[in-house]
Amino acid sequence: MLLDKALDLPDHTTLPGTTSPAMPFVFVADEAFALGKNLMRPYSSRGLSIARRVFNYRLTRARRVVECAFGILANKWRFLHTPIHLKLETAISAVKAACVLHNFVRARDGYNFEDSLSHSLQSHLPSVARGHRQGAAVREQFTAYCMSPHGALPWQLEAI
After folding, report:
1. How far is CA 86 from CA 24, 89, 90, 120, in A?
2. How many helices (H) and strands (E) does the chain have?
3. Which of 10, 38, 123, 151 is the 20 to 30 A CA-CA neighbour of 4?
4. What single DSSP character describes residue 40?
């Protein structure tokens, strides 16, 4: 819970259609990142069960959506294509300003959106061993949810 507070993440919540356990909010990542309670990465690709292949597919799809959204934002605000040489607080403000301006332009052009940039993303890394164990448990719970009647998508098995 300490890391959740340091990252200013929302409180844990239950997944749709379930009653427990409450799950943490997570960031999606690729294989380059270490697994953690708040950082999901795919399973390694050898000898995966169907459930783990489905999880990898769904996680990768989520990551692609985020990358595409950032690409759209970065193409409009070119300073996001290069390293930002500002103090951390100023860089955070600049990225938030780009998001607000982007949303303003989209709203002006008639697009509906939900503002989801309300949390501070500061660098606080958990210990590797503890973070990995907790992350593995969270990942297993998400994997089970992806295969459950409430979390499964009708077409996910054909996509893997």
Report:
1. 31, 8, 6, 16
2. 5, 2
3. 151
4. E
- pLDDT values of the chain reduced to their tens digit, one per residue, 160 residues: 555 556 778 889 999 998 878 999 999 999 999 999 999 999 998 899 999 999 999 999 999 999 998 898 999 888 899 999 999 899 989 999 999 998 888 888 877 655 444 443 334 444 444 558 899 999 999 999 999 999 999 999 999 8
Is the link from the previous residue into 126 a cis peptide, with omega within 30 of 0?
A: no
What is the reported pLDDT for 130? 54
DSSP secondary structure letter of residue 65: H
- Which tokens is 138 given? 């969270």
Phi-psi region of 110 (alpha: psi -120 to 50; beta: other; left: phi over 0): left
- Residue 86 and residue 96 in contact, taking contact as beta carbons nearer than 8 Å: no
Distance CA 133, CA 36 (A): 8
Whole-angstrom distance, CA of residue 55 vs CA of residue 4 = 23
